Amino acid sequence: MFGIKANVLATYVLLFVLFGAFLEKCGAQKFFIDFPLAAVGHKIGGPGKVSVIASGLFGSISGSAIANTVSTGTFTIPMMKKAGFRPHIAGGIEPAASIGGMFMPPIMGAGGFIMAELTGLPYSTIMLVAIFPALMYFFSVFVMVHYEAKKDNVIGERFERNAMDILKNEWVYTLPLIVITIFMLAGYSPGFSAILGLASCIFVSFKEKGTRIDLALAIIMAVILCGSIINMLVVKAGAGGTLTTTTIAKISSIITNPNLLITGIIVYIIVTLRRENPKESLKKELKSFVVASRVGTENGLKIGATVGVIGIIIGVLTFSGLILTFADIVIELAGGSLVLTILFIALASLVLGMGVPVTAAYLVTAVVAVPALTHLGVNELAAHMIVYWLSQDSNITPPVCIAAFAGATIAKANMWKTAFASFKFAKFLYLGPFLFGYVPGFSLQGGPKAIVTAFVLIIIGTYMYSWFLSGIWVRPLMNFFKGPEAEEDTAAKEEEEKTEKRALDEALKEVD
């Protein structure tokens, strides 16, 4: 029960779950939706594209595909339906995009931290390897949404604000994610980086009056954050030979001096007393802090309960010798074929992940499947990535696909149609593992030239793969074989649908 998994939970995961709750509370979620809405909302398939970008931004810190579907989906799914997407398509796009948040740094759910512990690699390495595959996943869903919208001529409405204005005025909401990424890449521990991310959230919350979290904490956290940044720069300067050890010690002692904290508290008291209604302001801000803490703690407990039970399961698998037996069975059945091995692991992860949190599905599958992949010559990190990607499929693959069913509920659509639509849009989920297994550059293995070449070819291949799966080529192909009359019928039908849509929009505007 209290193995590597519980250690990772206590050391990193709880802090990042709290960070996610505070980031949402500080007002960042609105920016994550408003910015993509202004940037692409008015284009072909605009609302669907908004769903993809918003799910990528919010999903990277939420750590749960289902939570991501429910939170961003309540806004994006009705918007997609209003624009002209069929209900089951709108309900399928959101969960397909939402599971991509589990691959997107800087947080990647709890699985990324567990992967770092199991492989013995720094979390910053896991992040770097995960960035390009995650972007390719979202690119694939984005392209499929574009062509799906093109088939039905779905075009969104222009947002009342300009994308550049939103970015100019609200870029500060990206600061917590930037802080975490910079400090982790600079070599600091994920736990320390998460605390600084939390500091940034509390500081950023003061941008809007309605989202403010306790001013005392904001001042203290701002001092901690600034001190940490100065300390990082000082240490780097010392490593480069610019500063002497004595100078570094003096600067560090000034930064860590308790008097700075006392000064911050005094400033807070003065600022509080000068307010119009200090008691009411303080009560409201402290309430925001408690609410964010409670949400983060509840989410952490859910993951904790799962990790505890998984510890027992993995203990049984390890001490009974089933891990080696399973690896041997898979290798023997696959006959040494990597393709068949990945397919068997996909099937195993689907069965093991039915109705189970994806972190649990990844852990159980990784223990039994990684040895089989490494035996066939796959790099250990790439093997873990294969299992981690495939462990997400139970969220969108029938028969038990909770995230897809959540999307269907919001869209008020047939749950099986929605599930299969979600399965279709998430198809890069099954291509990614093969790229990890066969293309070393996909997991940053090899020289810079080989990696760049692999990236370029994968971008082109992903576009073609998504275009093909979207099925946009089917109708023109059928019309080609049927002759010019069929093309005229199709054009007339499309024009009729456009006219009906315009009439419906005008009627809705009159009602409004």
Keywords:
512 residues, mainly alpha, globular
Instruction: Name the helix and strand elements from N-terminus to C-terminus, one letter apiece.
Output: HHHHHHHHHHHHHHHHHHHHHHHH
Oligomeric state as shown: single chain
Percent helix among the residues? over 70%
Per DSSP E runs of 2 or more residues, the count of β-strands stands at: 0
Mean pLDDT: 79
The helix tally amounts to 24
C-alpha end-to-end distance: 57 Å
Q: What is the structural class?
A: mainly alpha
Give me the Rg, rounded. Answer: 25 Å
| Poorly predicted segments | none
Describe this structure in words.
- The chain has helices at 4-25, 28-40, 46-62, 65-83, 87-98, 111-119, 123-152, 163-170, 175-185, 190-204, 215-239, 245-255, 258-273, 278-320, 322-334, 338-352, 358-375, 380-390, 402-411, 415-425, 428-438, 448-470, 474-482, 484-511.
- It is mostly helical and 512 residues long.
- It has a domain at 477-511.
- The longest helix is centred in the middle third of the chain and has 43 residues, at 278-320.
- The protein is globular.
- The termini are far apart.
- The model has no long low-confidence stretch (mean pLDDT 79).
